[in-house]
Amino acid sequence: MTDITILTCKAFSQPEEITPDIATILYERSLLQDALERRGYKVACTYWDDSNYDWSQTKAIIFRTIWDYFERYDEFSVWLDTVKDQTKLINPEALIRWNVDKHYLADLEAKGIAIVPTAYVDTGVYRSIDTVCKEKGWTDVVIKPAIAGTAFHTHKVMEVKRDSFETLFKKLVSERDMLVQPFQETITSLGEASLMILNGKYTHSILKKAKTGDYRVQGNFGGTVHDYTPTPEEIAFAEKVFSTCDPMPAYGRADIIWDTDGAILLGELEIIEPELWIRNCPEAAEDFADGVIEYLN
Question: Domains of the chain (ranges plus CATH)?
Answer without folding.
Answer: 2-90 (3.40.50), 104-114+186-290 (3.30.470.20), 119-182 (3.30.1490)
